[in-house]
Structures are given as structure tokens and as C-alpha cells.
Fold this sequence. Notes:
alpha+beta; 4-stranded antiparallel beta sheet; DUF6904 family protein
Amino acid sequence: MIQIRSTPNEAGVSVLGDLVDIEGLYESLHEVVGEEGELERYEGARLRVLGVCYELRHALMGDREIEFKENGLDTEKIKRFGVIAQDKNIYYKIEVLWPELLFVVMVLNDFIWFYAKKQTKSSFTPLTEWRNSWNPTISQVRMFQAAVARCLSETLSEASFPRVLKQMNRAYPWMDSYLFQYVDLLNIRFLEMDRDTRRKNISIMVKRLAEKNKEYTELEQEVAAAARQHHCTVFDIKIGLDYPADFEW
């Protein structure tokens, strides 16, 4: 089962799982977001989800950190089974910034809705039932979202946790054409905070992502104007801020 825990300096979370966990999450995220151009108004959001897939793939390739976890085998059990085995399993680990993770978890609601709708074209099952069915792809993605929710419940106060979940589960679809550069802005701003301030601002990051406030609207207008000026798409426009070269997770 995928495990998610906040990093020591609250910059983001560690996503951990064994080989089966990480492969299953990687494949399910890839499947649920669909192919390039399939949902044109969600292409920016799709790329952010694929960014998590990129990290998962590199973890499987051995390019990220690993942890060893007890698997329940002890000397007596090894003798009883008559096998040569280790008493620990390898867990692959990636890190994701808090604002990035929150955006991905929120927009996955939309992708699940569209994925279920696509599947019902060849099924007699109503869409409302299909979204809640035992489809393995949807189940895997929901388990990932549930692991994030569990981590949030352990990180936020009892008062703010229900409010945050409500904001993250608004009626969908609603994040179409989301300005993905705004996620970069929040990521960079979050990294500029100290540890204690980051923890206090996780709920604020959710609010900023959900409400599309004046700051979001102004940035959206600036990006659109720059795209027109340079005769390119909004996906080619970068904001005038850089991620810090080095930071403590």
C-alpha cells in the first residue's frame, strides 16, 4: 500500500511503496489522465500529473532513494518456510512539494470523472455508478488520494482538516484550463517559508489553488498576453521566478 508522510522540513511529502505499489500507481495515473490532446483544456494539468509519474518511473529505475521496512519474517519463520529470504522489503521513495501534490490530488477528481465517462460508452453501467465501481484504475488512484488525506489529517489541526477536504473535493469537473504556472508560483513561495510557516500554510495553499483569486486572474492575463506577443501557446510561457537550487526537504 502506498504510504505518504510529510518531509522533515515540511517542504512536501515522501511517497513510498514497494515495487508493486509504485508500478501500480504509475500505471494507473498514466491511464486515468489519458493521451496527449485527448482533453485539450486539461493538458496543463495532465502534465503536472505526469510529472509525478516521471518521479515514480525514476524511482523504479533506481534513481531515487529507497528505505528498508520490516516484512514480518524472523529467524523462526524463515526456518519454518525453509527459504533463504531477507527480513526487510525495499520501499521506493520520491518527494513531491506540498502545493504540487495538493494540485495533483485535486485535479485527479476531474480525470477520474472523464475516465469513467469514457468507459461507459461501451458499458450499460450508469456513470454515477461507474465512478464508484471496483475499476482497478480508479481504485488505485482513489487509494493514492486517500493516503494523501491520511497524511493531511496527521499534519493539519482538527479544525482545518475537514475544511481542507471540502475545498479539495468540490463538484467536478472544475479545474479545466487551469493555469499550471500558478502552481509553480505557489511551489516557489512555499519553499521560501521556514518549516513552521510551511505547516501553517498547507491549508492556505489549498485555498489558493481552489479559489482562483485576483492574483491567479492577473497571472493568467499576463501569461495569455505573453503567449500572444511571442506567438506561442501558454504552455511555453515561464514565470519570472526560479526554483531554489538547493533546499531541505
